[in-house]
Design a protein that fits this description.
Length: 68
């Protein structure tokens, strides 16, 4: 892991998002840091790649966000 502030911000957000989804029984297997933006040198935090999911998982995310 890098010591860059932006990297720490992204990793914290990724960890919290993964935990929040798990609390609703949702797993996104490809949820991770976007490697090209993580490897790039710059001042912005790397992107977080949400990845693809099947329709049932998309519906579970929508329901969780809607509070259903």
């Amino acid at each position: 892991m890098s010591d860059h502030d932006g990297d720490r911000v992204a990793i914290t957000a990724l960890t919290e998002l993964r935990a929040a989804l798990a609390a609703h029984g949702i797993t996104l297997p490809s949820l991770d840091l976007h490697l090209p933006s993580y490897a790039a040198s710059g001042t912005r935090p790397p992107l977080i790649c949400l990845g693809n999911c099947n329709p049932a998982t998309a519906q579970r995310i929508a329901d969780a966000l809607a509070g259903r």
